[in-house]
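Mods, move this if it's the wrong board.
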Amino acid sequence: MKNSSEKKLKIVTIIGARPQFIKAAAVSRLLRDDADEIILHTGQHYDENLSKVFFDELDIPNPEYNLGVGSGTHGVQTGEMLGKIEAVLIDTQPDWVIVYGDTNSTLAGALAAAKLHIKVAHVEAGLRSFNRRMPEEINRILTDHISDLLFCPSDVAVHNLANEGIKEMAIIVGDVMADSLCFAAEKAEKQSDILESLGLKPSQYYLATVHRAENTDDPIRLKNIFDALTSLDMKVVFPIHPRTRQAVENYRYQDYFSASNIELINPLGYLDMVRLEGSAKMILTDSGGIQKEAYWLQVPCVTLRGETEWVETVQSGWNVLAGGDKENILEKVLRFKVPENYPTLYGDGTAARKIIDILNKYPGC
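Not the wrong board. Structure tokens:
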């Protein structure tokens, strides 16, 4: 903590989507002891189950700014964010802007700050799927190349940045999501009754999530995933993302949920989700964050993509890539063998403290 006579850094934290709330929670809980933090919520995720509940459960201070951007095409959404974020930064004149992950909010925040010559710190830097058809991949690459500090979760992330010529700004701190999971897991055991309310018993159900555009925007691929889920031998609990729900309506796939083993539920808060993850027999997902949470909770994970940024989880044997083919998904589920070893990945749960200590050593604008 800074001496009271020292000038505190002024930092604008830019968030807008569920994964960013989880990541920022770990940093923001500590940051306000060391800095003047202003939280800017772009409104990219505006549904209460994807936004407000995370602030409540993870003890995140209410945002000083909520831009209310909402959904839209990538260009429309990012453009509206860019203009509104710029206005806030001009008004607040921070020393640093912190952005998280790989969403449109991440890119818009970093770009607005860089254009105003405000220092940018990117948390979760250096991840690469090497699939440039993913909008998240474009956001990651551009954000890394205009940031002043790159906080990396692993050696692999630093190696990726070195290959792109920007290793000198990279610092390994671990993953702030590990910090948040440590905080939330204990609360979830005490406060969440999701298993009881759904009538579930530990290891007697699968948990599935699908939200990435490569799955939701391809009707054949999405159908293959649903065909695989309905062929599994136990109940599949499926918290449905708004984008996926819209795809189900557009493709008229409602019948998958009328008389099958899939139990469709609304998006969950973090505590309920953590408890569901920790008690599942296996998780099937296209979410990067859930891949990591599955690993930390020591739950087998089948990733519904052909690649992942979190390659260490695959190398450890706790995560397998299945893509969007029905038979391949079922084969990966049936043949999954839980590894005997469990290496420590992505730090020791103190990433947030390391990030704050490093920021305090660097001058701002």
